[in-house]
Design a protein that fits this description.
175 residues, mainly alpha, Arc Repressor Mutant, subunit A, three-stranded antiparallel sheet, 3 strands, 66% helix, 7% strand
Length: 175
């Protein structure tokens, strides 16, 4: 009997960073893996990872050169990270360029993620769920209608719990 066929495992894409040391590259990969879980672009993980491990603030041009990404990608990533509260702008003496530094305070990072990513999704989901109940009521099959309504009610319950838990989570984290 032949061995069972297993689906091909998707190999993780690990980029090379020729201008960085081994530790820097590995730290960046940790953050790339983290942002993938959150559904954010890999460049955001790369930028934050490099800023996190860098002892000095870096300019936009430094990020572009060291990470090998486009200026547009670096600029967009920095804008997203600033919106999340994960990066601070730093003015260095004798430099006309703006520099950036990672904010390493966990409560600010989680609070920013909740504020910028989770809450807007939760708010838009509320209005969608309200409309779902109306659509479920239009189902002519009574059994199917009851099933749909029970699922929509479950969604409403989950969302009410999320609305209750998010402020507590933010308070615990100190934002």
């Amino acid at each position: 009997m032949p061995p069972p066929v297993r689906p091909a495992r998707e190999e993780e894409e690990v980029r090379e960073f020729p201008t960085l040391g081994a530790l820097e590259a590995q730290v960046i990969q940790v953050f790339v893996d983290g942002v993938k879980v959150l559904g954010l672009p890999r460049s955001i993980g790369e930028i934050y990872g490099l800023l996190f491990i860098s002892p000095e603030p870096l300019s936009l041009d430094d990020l572009v050169e060291r990470l090998g990404i486009s200026k547009g990608s670096a600029s967009q990533g920095l804008r997203a990270l600033k919106g999340l509260g994960a990066v601070r702008e730093i003015d260095l003496e004798n430099s006309r360029r703006l520099h950036f530094q990672a904010d390493t305070e966990l409560k600010r990072l989680v609070g920013g993620f909740i504020r910028e990513q989770v809450r807007p999704h939760l708010e838009s989901g509320q209005s969608k769920v309200g409309r779902l109940l109306e659509v479920a009521s239009d189902e002519p099959d009574a059994e199917l209608q009851a099933f749909f309504k029970s699922r929509v009610t479950q969604l409403e319950y989950w969302m009410s719990k999320a609305r209750f838990v998010l402020p507590i989570l933010q308070k615990v984290l100190g934002e």
